[in-house]
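Example record used in the benchmark description.
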Amino acid sequence: MKGLTATPELRQHLDALRQQSHHQPIAPDEVTRIVEQVLATMGGEITSTDVKLYRELEGLARFIQHARSEIAQVRPDAISSHDIPSATDELDAVVGATEEATGVILDAAEQLENLAGTLPPEQAAIVSDVVTRVYEACNFQDVTGQRITKVVRTLKQIEERVSAMLAAFGDELARMQTDPSAPKYNPAAGPSIAPDQVDLLHGPSLPDEAKRQAEIDAILASFG
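Model output (C-alpha cells):
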C-alpha cells in the first residue's frame, strides 16, 4: 500500500520556502505549486487519510484563488499609494493646525493675565481664574497630538502590511489593472455621509493643495 510520499524535489522546495518565509512573504503561486506537487505524490492505493488530505488541499487551493481575486478587486495598490498617505497627511495637518491654534489661545490668555494686573482686585481675581481655566483646557493639544500620532503610526504599519501583500500578489494585481472588466478604483467611494456633514467631509485643503488652487485661480483671473 502506497500513500503520500514527499519526493526529494518537494522536500528541497519546502526547505527553501521555509528559509524564505523568515525574510519575505511566500507568494500565493508558490503555495498553489506546493499543493499541486503534494497531490502529484499520491499514488497506488490511497487511504482514507489521503483522501481527506486531498480534499483539504483542494479546498486550500480554491480558497487561495478566491482570496487573490477578492484582494485584487479591493485594489490594495490604490490603498497604499493614495488612501493611506492622504489620511496620514490630513492627520498631520490636524496636529499642525491644532498646535498653531493652541499657541494663539495661549498668547491671548497671557495678554489677559497681564491685563488682570491693571484691574481692581475683585475683577482681577475673576480674570485670573478664567485664564487659569484656559491654560488647563489647552492641555487637550498634547493629548490630541499624542493620540493622532498613534493613529498615524498605525496607518503606516498598515501601509507596510499592504505593501508586503502587494509584493506577494504583484503579478496578479498587474493583470487585474490591465483587465478592462476589473472594477475601477474610486477614491470617493465609501460609506454614505449625512447631507449636513458633506461640507465637513471635504474640510480645508492641505497647504500644498491650497497653493496649487491659488495658482489655478490666478491663471483663470488673468483671462478675465
